[in-house]
Design a protein that fits this description.
16 strands; alpha/beta; nine-stranded mixed sheet; 13% strand; ATP-binding; 61% helix; ATP binding
Length: 722
């Protein structure tokens, strides 16, 4: 550029005004230099063309990439709209099912009140009839008529009770369907969370691409500024070329004038004039070619400006599209938050319905389980089978009959498991109670029965094979699996386990490392543990070992440690009899960080010591004291349950360490389940009838929310311990 400026600033010099030859040589040299400048301009123009092609290819690639991104985002938006519509339809179906459940619940409560009033009226009628039978024995005909009327009323009540049981089974089926629906909703929420995670990753990639686009846009802006500067330089150079062209034209005109003057004055030959004319024509052609080049450069400059405007419009469109995508992502996040809120509300509704169903079933329930006949038992005696199961619609799966001295004893409970029932069948019936503990309620499940009836097998089972695992390991497995599945809803749970036994009315810590391993006289000198209840209904045992657990493996190890430390002994009823009450307690604390909800649940799983008559157990010495202590604590347990059921002012919780420890779990909104285990052998029928009578009395109690009364068709309902 400096050479061009010097060339443009150069002036023609000659020896004198009439030195045309020297001036012509200078003009030829000047024209050569101009041609060199023109070649330099052409090379510069080629560079600009290459740069423009590069910018054009970059713009085309950016347009293609933005078109692909736009198509992907449209597909994602359509997919999310489809998912949201599915969720809305599912929400509407859930609301409809909830309304139906509420209507069924109100109808059931109304029918239950009607039935209760009818039962009260029937009981009053029975009492009146009994008094009239004692006073007026001579009115036989009147007595016969009244008896027929009572029988008809009783028949109608039995039919109504059957329909109520069918309705109860339908309610359980509906509860299972609600649980499946909520689990499906949970799975759909997890799928939606995965989709949102993918969308977030895609949004991050879009942000990265947008940042790259912005950087490329900034580079394009920089190149645009540089191009503007170069265009300004080109315009200056173009103006200089125009000035030079005008100057050259003026020179040509002056030369023409000088040539004419020269012709007139000197009369030079025509050959020299022709040469000068050719030179002048050459200069004119050069000026015209430069004029064309200037026009071409102007067209290229206009095209470059148009491309820069298009690049600016593309950048604006990209920014607008990014804002729209950002708005779409925000809308999707709001919809997801709304869906999560609906899932949380559905979980609250599930807990409420689940608790309502359990309360309608009864806050205290009784299950019966019959142990299979052992190979070395006396089942092959003359008496034949002593246990049978009624097949009537009313008692199917709920009734059990025992034969003793040619007399039939019939009992009815909430559920009866025969000797073929598996551990899985038993756990399915109690799994709802385990869920209540995770929902924040106090749950107590204890196994009751004579020595050798299968209580420990029901509660603990065997570690191998897995089908023989008992209620305790299965309950813990369900709790840990459910707590992990609820983590995606924001729930965090803390589990604390403790294990103790009550031996001869003395509490022993089964997880204490300093506890003696054998059962001897020095065991009585072990540490004393005090039971304390706070105002919130929580129970604490002083100095008891409480272990934080996070997995089923940790709890299984603690159960093995406790099993090795538990007190067992030999009696005539069992080679290895549990001589203490085993109490496993799992405290569950849950916090939902998103909703700030908190739950405090307790699961007590208890393997009671074997009940047996003193005369039949053959206990003497220490075994006699153990048997007396066991029977005393079991009697205290029955006294507490009956006092609560009768709503007495004083409930004798302190009569036994067992009842005082379980005080918060035997009242209020707590859930209690009693497993009565019996042996099917004829030699054990007396103890079995005794256990079933006690269980039937418990089954007839109403604790917390009232429920239907269970009939016990036994002639004698008194429980006695020898």
């Amino acid at each position: 550029m400096e050479d061009v400026e010097r060339l443009l600033g150069e002036k023609m010099k000659g020896k004198n005004k009439n030195d045309y030859k020297g001036k012509s040589e200078q003009m030829i040299e000047y024209i050569k230099k101009l041609r060199t400048c023109i070649r330099w301009f052409m090379e510069l123009e080629d560079g600009y063309l290459a740069e423009q092609e590069k910018l054009r290819s970059m713009l085309d690639s950016e347009e293609k990439r933005h078109a692909e991104i736009e198509a992907q985002m449209k597909a994602k938006v359509e997919e999310l709209n489809t998912i949201i519509q599915d969720l809305q339809r599912q929400h509407a179906s859930l609301l409809e099912s909830f309304r139906k459940e509420e209507a069924d619940k109100l109808a059931f409560v109304k029918s239950y009140e009607t039935e209760r009033e009818a039962r009260i009226a029937v009981e009053n009628l029975r009492a009146t009839l009994s008094e009239e039978l004692e006073k007026v024995n001579q009115e036989a005909r009147r007595f016969s008529d009244q008896l027929k009327m009572i029988q008809e009323t009783n028949k109608r009540l039995q039919e109504y009770n059957t329909s109520l049981q069918q309705y109860n089974s339908n309610l359980q089926a509906d509860a299972l369907k609600n649980g499946e629906t909520i689990s499906k909703l949970q799975k759909e929420k997890n799928a939606m969370m995965e989709t949102l995670t993918g969308l977030r990753d895609h949004t991050n990639s879009l942000k990265i691409q947008l940042d790259a686009s912005r950087s490329s846009q900034q580079e394009a802006i920089k190149q645009k500024e540089e191009l503007k500067k170069e265009v300004g330089c080109l315009r200056c150079e173009l103006q200089q070329v125009r000035d030079e062209r005008d100057h050259t034209l003026v020179q040509v005109q002056s030369l023409s004038v000088e040539v004419a003057n020269y012709k007139e004055r000197t009369g030079k030959s025509s050959q020299d004039m022709e040469t000068i004319r050719i030179k002048a024509n050459t200069l004119e052609e050069t000026c015209s070619s430069q004029r064309e080049q200037i026009q071409m450069l102007q067209h290229q400059l206009a095209a470059a400006n148009e491309k820069l405007k298009r690049a600016d419009l593309t950048a604006i469109e990209t920014t607008t599209e990014y804002e729209q995508q950002k708005k779409t992502v925000k809308d999707l996040q709001e919809r997801l938050a709304d869906a999560e809120f609906q899932i949380l509300e559905a979980e609250k509704l599930r807990k409420k319905l689940h608790n309502t169903i359990l309360e309608l079933k009864g806050n205290i329930r009784v299950f019966c389980r019959v142990r299979p006949i052992l190979p070395d038992s006396d089942s092959s005696g003359i008496e034949g089978p002593v246990v049978s199961y009624p097949t009537s619609v009313e008692s199917l799966g709920r009734g059990i009959d025992l034969m003793h001295h040619a007399q039939k004893y019939s009992f009815t409970f909430d559920k009866v498991f025969n000797h073929e029932a598996s551990q899985e069948d038993v756990f399915v019936e109690i799994s709802q109670l385990v869920q209540s503990a995770l929902d924040g309620y106090k749950v107590c499940i204890f196994a009751y029965g004579q020595t050798g009836s299968g209580k420990t097998y029901t509660m603990m089972g065997k570690p191998q094979p897995s089908e023989q695992k008992g209620l305790i390991p299965r309950s813990l497995e369900q709790i840990f699996q459910t707590s992990q599945s609820l983590q995606c809803q924001g729930w965090k749970y803390k589990m604390q386990a403790s294990m103790l036994e009550i031996y001869n009315e003395t509490i022993r810590d089964l997880l204490s490392l300093s506890r003696p391993g054998s059962l001897d006289a020095n065991a009585a000198l072990s540490k004393q543990y005090a039971i304390k209840h706070d105002s919130n209904g929580n129970t604490q045992v002083s100095d008891l070992t409480v272990v934080d657990v996070c997995s089923l493996k940790e709890v299984s190890f603690l159960l093995q440690q406790a099993a090795q430390s538990r007190s067992v002994g030999k009696t005539q009823m069992n080679e290895q009899s549990s001589r203490s009450h085993f109490v496993f307690t799992l405290r569950i604390s849950g916090v939902n960080e998103s909703t700030e909800q908190q739950v405090q649940g307790v699961l007590n799983l208890i393997d009671l010591a074997g009940s047996e008559r003193l005369a039949k157990s053959g206990s003497t010495g220490d075994r006699l004291k153990e048997t007396q202590a066991i029977n005393k604590s079991l009697s205290a347990l029955s006294d507490v349950i009956f006092a609560i059921a009768k709503k007495e002012d004083h409930v004798p919780f302190r009569n036994s360490k067992l009842t005082y420890l379980l005080q918060p779990c035997l009242g209020g909104d707590s859930k209690t389940l009693m497993f009565v285990n019996i042996a099917p052998e004829s030699s054990s029928v007396g103890e079995s009838i005794c256990s079933l009578r006690f269980a039937a009395r418990v089954n007839s109690c109403e604790i917390g929310i009232p429920r239907r009364q269970t009939q016990m068709r036994s002639s004698d309902s008194r429980l006695s311990y020898g």
